[in-house]
Amino acid sequence: MAGNSFGALFRFTTWGESHGPAIGVVVDGVPARLALSESEIQVELDRRRPGQSRFTTQRREPDTVRILSGVFEGLTTGAPVSLIIDNVDQRSKDYGDNALKFRPGHADYVYWTKYGIRDHRGGGRSSARETACRVAAGAIARKILGDAITIRGALVQIGPHKIDRSRWDWAEIAKNPFFCPDAVAAAEWAEWLDGVRKAGSSTGAVVEVVASGVPVGLGEPLYERLDSDLARALMSINAVKGVEIGDGFAAAALSGEENADEMRRGPDGQPVFLANHAGGILGGISSGQDVVCRFAVKPTSSILTPRQTIDTQGNETEIVTKGRHDPCVGIRAVPVGEAMVACVLADHLLRARAYQGAPPL
C-alpha cells in the first residue's frame, strides 16, 4: 500500500489501523534544537479527541502520545521524531456483521477489490482514527512555524445551516462543542444535530482554516504551488469532497473588477491589499495576507438506517452500521484541517529558507 507519507522537506509517515494495538507517525525533516515535549503535542490531540460531547463518537480514547525517538533532553536532535498513540477502546465485535458486506459510502468495496483483503473492524487503515497522527505531526509543524504564524480553524456550516459572518468571534470557538465562531449558530446547531443523532443519521459540514502571519514568498508558480499543496493536503483528510482557496467557487460569479485584490502603499512603504478574494495566494505563492482555505466534509457513512448493498459474493442484501460514530465527522475535522495546513506551511517555510541559504531556524 503506497501513499502513507506526505510532504517534501517536512515529511511525515503514518502507520496503524483503527482497531490495531496502536497508531503512530514518523516525522522527518524536523530541524535540530527545537524545544519539543509530549505535553505540547497532547494539547493539539486533546482538541481532536473523541467522546468529548454527545455530538461526536463515544469511543473513549485518551489519545495519549509518547515520543519514541528524535528528542533528547527536551530538544529535537534532527533525527526522525517517532510518536505512538495506543488504541485502548476498540470494540471490534460491533463490526462483525460488516465482514462480508460492503458499507455504502465507505471504502470497503474498493479496498477489497484492490488489495484482495480488508480490515472490516472500523475501516482499518481508511478510518478517521488515522487523523490523530496528522494532528500530532501538525503540532510539530507549529513549532517550526513559530509564534509569528497563527493557524485557526472553525466550523462555518453544518448540514444546510451556515454561520452569520457578521457575528464571527474567534473567542467563541472554545466555548461550544462545534468549533463555531458564531454563538447563536452554535446553539441552533446543537438542537438540530440532536435530532439527526437521535434518528441514527448523519450530516456534512464545511470547515474554514485561516493562517495569519504567513510571509510573502512561500510556494512555487507551477507544480508545487502553495494552494495546490494545501488542496492536496485537505483533500487527503477522510470524508473531504471539496476544497476552496479564498473565495473559491464564489469567484466564478464575480467580475474582474470585483475579484481584483487592489493594492495601495502602506504607511511603512509596504503594499496594503484592499481585499483578499485570492485567499492570500497569488500565482501559487503566498502574498503576506491571511491564507484562507475551506473544505467540505460529507455526511458520516456509518448510519443506523438500513441501506441496500451487496456482499463479497455479489449477493444483494441490506446493512445497518453499528458501533460508535460521529453524527457529523466535520466537527473533529477542524483540528485535523489546522494540522494539515500547518504541515504544508512548515514544509514550504523550510524550502524557502533553503533557497535563501539561511539556517533552517
Q: What order do the helices and strands come in, and which of them pair?
A:
Blueprint: E1 5-6, E2 11-16, E3 22-28, H1 38-48, E4 65-69, E5 71-72, E6 75-76, E7 81-86, H2 108-115, H3 131-145, E8 150-158, E9 161-162, H4 183-198, E10 205-212, H5 226-235, E11 240-245, H6 256-259, E12 263-265, E13 271-273, E14 281-282, E15 285-286, E16 291-297, E17 307-310, E18 316-319, H7 333-355
Antiparallel strand pairs: 1-2, 2-3, 3-7, 4-7, 5-6, 8-9, 8-10, 10-16, 11-16, 12-13, 14-15, 17-18
Helix pairs in contact: 1-3, 1-7, 3-7, 5-7
What does it look like?
Helices cover 24% and strands 22% of the residues. With 361 residues, it is of the alpha+beta class. The strands form 6 sheets. Strands 1-2-3-7-4 form a 5-stranded antiparallel beta sheet, with helices on one face. Strands 9-8-10-16-11 form a 5-stranded antiparallel beta sheet. The model has no long low-confidence stretch (mean pLDDT 92).
